[in-house]
Amino acid sequence: MDRSAIVHDNFLRRVAEGDLPEGRAPEGPLPASEAVSIYRSGCLCRALDRQSRAMQAAGQGYYTIGSSGHEGMAAVASALQPTDMAFLHYRDAAFQIQRSTQVPGQSITWDMLLSFACSTDDPISGGRHKVLGSKALNIPPQTSTIASHLPKAVGAAYSIGLARRHKPEHRALPSDAIIMCSFGDASANHSTAQGAFNTAQWTAYQGIPMPLLFVCEDNGIGISTKTPQGWIAATFASRPGMKYFACDGLDMFETYRVAQQAADYVRKRRRPAFLHMRTIRLYGHAGADVPTTYMKKHEVEAEEANDPLLHSVRLLAESGALERSEALDIYTETNARVERVAEQVIERPRLKTAGDVMASLIPPPRICQPTNGPSPEARAAAFGNDLKAMDEPQIMSRLINWALTDLMLEHGEIAMMGEDVGRKGGVYGVSQKLIGRFGPSRVIDTLLDEQSILGLGIGMAHNGFLPMPEIQFLAYLHNAEDQLRGEAATLPFFSNGQYTNPMVVRIAGLGYQKGFGGHFHNDNSVAVMRDIPGLILACPSNGAEAAMVLRECVRLAREEQRVVVFLEPIALYSMRDLHQTGDGGWLTRYPDPSRRIAFGEVGVHGDGEDIAILTFGNGTYLSHQAQKRLETDGTRSRVIDLRWLSPLPETAILKAIEGCQRVLVVDETRRTGGVAEALMTLLTERTVLPHTRLSAEDSFIATGPAYAATMPSADSIFEAALSLMKVPA
User: Fold this and answer.
1) Which of these, 583, 525, 546, 585, lies nearest to 428 by C-alpha position?
2) CA atoms within 13 A on the CB side of 408
3) How far apart are CA 189 and CA 207, in angstroms?
4) pLDDT for 431 beyond 70
5) Cα–Cα distance list, 600 to 424, 556, 656 (Å)
6) Nearest to 649 by CA among 555, 538, 549, 552
7) Which side of the chain, N or C, has fewer Cβ within a 10 Å radius?
8) Quick one: average pLDDT of 634-643?
9) What is the pLDDT of residues 506-529, one digit of tens each?
10) Phi and psi based region of residue 138 (left: phi greater than 0; alpha: psi -120 to 50; beta: remaining)
């Protein structure tokens, strides 16, 4: 017999007989009417779990990870305000149900069943997933989160204090709000969670506001692996900078009282707190899970005998809020109502086509206040003597710095964050002077944790800021890539465009650094970013274009709410010369602040028709060197700088190669998984031109004289072009 049916039958029998579990007497500030409301939310949560299993068995529903045993989260919701943004654990249906009682006009039963059925009418995901979440309830959607939502909760909490000093145009959270994020005891061990706890403590330790309530729902097990008894209390009770609270989630009166105390502490002190809530898990991990395969039967039955709804019936009766018979009526009526609504929900439409599914990958644009750019007075005050230097050609790193300055002057909601971006001005000096120009609240020196850096940006975007996180080296992104893949890029997809994460992530990367750092500092793989649906990846090749592309990246994030990565080629930061020492061939002047390079616009250098060299980043620089040699050899060429690596500007590429007889793809990323693979596919499918590629080898990068041995060079580009010229056009 299914455990959900056993728990259901036990509840009906034991309440009717008055066979209720023992426990503490009800005490605390919970009003009787609110206690009844919390119980109703628990009953609905339980009924929905049972219905999800019935729907799956009938082929009408598609998700059975339930919340039974975690009904105490309804009391936590009652202790908070609906303006407190909540990032929820996937077992928190009771929290969302109870919060719906705090906001008028909700139809929570209907809405959650639509989600179970994956109907296009589902108000949060539009049928893409069964997720907890609601725009009206201030609950951004989460999928099956294993702590990946904790770093952004830290960022959202940080943004509340920052918004008091720098109010963003699209601010979403009031000044007195707090952030709540919940997770399981097993998830608390994940490195992402540990990073978030540490970042919150590190921030609060310095006296910086961090109004964040962590809620650990401790049911003692993660799928089949038990949490050592006492582990959560032992590891969290005495952490510096984070106050510990504990409650029994089976007791709604105690949970409400302690959750209220924790929330009041966070709201008044603006410091983080950790609420450790004891729960149980009923029915196993999900519908297909049979808990008796890894737990002894008497253990499972002991948990079921401790059903929190049975405790609630006892507590309500002892407090005089509700008689047992009335509680039983609410339970049975709730189950009947859920069954009736489910019969209607399964008839609602579902997604059918790829276009339907993908419609929310790209978020909708938003209206932003127009701006004419920073005033001459503001620029003079910020730039000082740098204004005079703008008349002379400069290296790329300096022009990026000036572009950042102009952008931050123009848009007060921009904030930078990263390791060493402030006082040091970045490892390569790209962000020099910015902390003096805009202060430490907008140029934030973070701790050394890439997950926390990206999480800070993602969370701040929830409150209207335009974050510009910096990842110090491309190889370091791999420590935290799920923050882009699993959090930022999925948010509009799973919220049907209602929630977005506009941001511009600056990453210093690619290869060709002479004798420095090996593969940790010379990383030439961008596959992980090109593999994220909806993410825009840009890569400039010289200073002037870097400034203009960066401005477009900010526009894409600010107005079109996109997640954008701006990849800066480290080896070109300080590049001055092109063909010979002292020629200054790679220096450029700072373009007027109004000039941008449009999304999808490629650069075309030269008009030769013999061969087109299709490349980007360092490849553009090297191809210019090869182009001069080809011209001397009598081969007319043009160099096409992609600039936009994902999505590839296919239409612009095909336009740029018109009239050419051959195409050489020069790709500094690896042969397997590199950009060239997509370019070769495009050329094969859409043209009849002879084409070939010159890519980096499938290798890490060495330190020392062989730093560039595995990647294209000006010589190898020249030779590859000559070889291609032998192929008849």
Assistant:
1) 546
2) 25
3) 26
4) yes
5) 34, 12, 12
6) 538
7) N
8) 97
9) 999 999 888 666 677 889 999 999
10) left
